[in-house]
Amino acid sequence: MTYNIIATGVGGQGVLFLSRILGEVALRQGFYPTIGEVHGMSQRGGTVVATVRIGDMKGLGPLIKQGGADALIAMEPLEAARAWDMLSEDAVAVVNTRPIWIEGYPEVKDLIGSIEKRCQVISYDAFEIARRVGAERSQNMVLLGTLIGSGRTPVEEKYVRDVLGERGGGKNLRCFEEGLHI
Question: Does the reported pTM lie above 0.70?
Answer without folding.
Answer: yes
